[in-house]
Amino acid sequence: MTTATAHGTRGGEWLIVATDPGTVMTRERITDEHRLIEQSTAEFMSGEVLPVLDRLEQKDWALNRVLLQKCGALGLLGTNVSDSYGGVDLDKVATLIVSEQVAVNASFAATFGAQANLTILPIYLFGTEAQKTTYLPALVAGDLAGAYCLSESGSGSDALGAAAKALRQADGSFALSGEKMWITNGGFADVFIVFAKVDGEHFTAFIVERGWPGVSSGKEEHKMGLHGSSTTPVILQDVAVPAGAVLGEIGKGHKVAFNVLNFGRFKLGAMTSGGAKNAIADSARYAAARKQFGVPIASFGAIRHKLGEMTAREYALESLLYRAAGLSTRPSTPREARPRRCCRRWRSSRSRRRLPRSTAARPWTTSSTRACRFTVAMASSPTIRWSGATATRGSIASSKARTRSTACSSRACSSRRP
User: Fold this and answer.
1) Using an 8 Å Cβ cutoff, are 195 and 203 in contact?
2) DSSP readout, 170-218?
């Protein structure tokens, strides 16, 4: 039987060929850097988001914007964006881990996903250099909020059936009209990725700003859930859109829409996995605490079967996600042949509160391409040993001194000395 290699497998080919187990990415094979990213994201959610859920569910969109800015300071919004635009350019496994952890609250996960997946990605993947430099730094930092406007009352899954129109004007600009429905972040977004048909025929993507005349949001939808997430119509009334706001090519909007959605669905799958893990944990805690006939219901066969079935299904989903992330992680060349670049080291949000604003703006420290320096200052532990470095609670000056003097020895870091 033919044996598949790590990066030589295409699509579902792994179902019909033998696979070397050593090439399969699993949860157990994540690096120390991945674990620190996971811990930082989990601490952000538990320390910043969960305590303010009541305010989020009361439609406090100003608070949502503040939380997006905190995500930006941590680097969570730019995991797939290069550092030249303010991102951190991590691998797909790191992106998966962040998505899993953000899913501890579905409302904020929707807000986060619309920003990181559906607004930042299309501009990064399809935008011109001018569009990238104009929008990406502020979006990645969370200073601007974004939304993705594809669905309409008469077109959802049939995206190409959109009725929104962009009429060409004599000066090369477009007059954009239409109504988009069920737009996440629609109530407070500053930048919209809007799809419309140029002259009623050519399906095209545009970057639209809220401040342009004719752009407005409708009333918040009354939903059964996700009450902490803004969902509104976005109304476009003869909006004057400059020619430079076309995203990608005229008539090629389907490439923007479907490629972004495909990548977004990978991240959404990770969010559903993270949500399932939280549901299983809550179920197990309840089953252990709830007693009938003098014993916890967790000891009953039917309950144990349900918990076991839930866990097995979640394990299958997790395995699928990590395998897919491993197959899509670049590059396929040996580590020795890769260009050297600095890794990023993550610090917890609680620790960074003690740092000056200029330092806290980025959760990592970089240096030359020959060696990376880093500091790890976790408030939850007085001493942490990781990748050959020791970080203790102490003054900012001592942390900076360790940062300058400690060279990364992590096996996962491609910038370590040979």
Assistant:
1) yes
2) TTS-EEEEEEEEEEETTTT-SEEEEEEEETTTEEEEEEEETTSTTEEE-
Residues recorded for the chain: 418
Question: Among 126, 89, 21, 174, which Cα is nearest to 364's?
Answer: 89
Lowest mean pLDDT, pick from 147-161, 216-230, 341-355 = 341-355
How much is the pTM? 0.76
d(CA 115, CA 78): 10
List, in order, residues 6 or more apart from 271 with CB less than 8 Å away. 99, 100, 102, 103, 106, 109, 113
The CA distance from 69 to 381, in Å, is 26
The tokens for 147 are: 């939304």
Instruction: Write out pLDDT tens, residues 168-205.
Output: 999 999 999 999 999 999 999 999 999 999 999 999 99
Residue 109 CA to residue 97 CA, distance in Å, equals 13
Cβ-count burial 220-251 (b if 16+ within 10 Å, e if not): bbeeeebbbbbbbbbbbeebebeeebbbbebe
- Give me the phi and psi of 55, to 5 degrees please: -70, -40
